[in-house]
Structures are given as structure tokens and as C-alpha cells.
UniProtKB/TrEMBL annotation:
Residue ranges constituting the Phosphatidylinositol transfer protein N-terminal domain according to the UniProt record: 6-81
Species per Swiss-Prot/TrEMBL record: Heterodera schachtii (Sugarbeet cyst nematode worm)
Protein name as it appears in the record: Phosphatidylinositol transfer protein N-terminal domain-containing protein
InterPro entries found in the cross-reference section: PI_transfer (IPR001666), PI_transfer_N (IPR055261), START-like_dom_sf (IPR023393)
Top-level taxon in the UniProt lineage: Eukaryota
Amino acid sequence: MAMAASPKCRLSEHELSWNAFPYCKTELTNPDYMKDDFLIWFETMHLSDRATTKTSVFQALGLSKGVLNERKVVCIDIATTK
């Protein structure tokens, strides 16, 4: 119903992606409808140890031990559903 009532420009998105493995960045925008008022971006870092330790994650990001103690690592499994 919403799709039938919405102009096509509301339903389109533009995606820009930069893959510099192991670092990737993706930006999603809707310049036809929202102009500069809409931006979602994702930054990901691929690690070989499955992020099982805090140290490996924060070493990959180049963060200090002080910052390490303030952060929490949350692993998200996008391959399986529960």
C-alpha cells in the first residue's frame, strides 16, 4: 500500500562502497527525495580470528588500552538465524 502511494524517488537509494579489505565502508543516501538530510554509513573491519578477543579487535582499530577498557565487543553472526 505504501509503495503504491509513494513517489518513486522516495523508494530509491544510492549506495557507494569502498572495499579496501580488510576495511570496508558503505554509504546509503536518497538524494532524489531527502537531498542531503539522509545518510547511513557502515564501516566494517574483517578479522581473521573471528573477534574472539577484545585485544585483537582494538589492535586492528589502533585504539589505546584506556579506550579498550571503555568498550564492549559484540559479535554479530549474520550467517545463521536463531
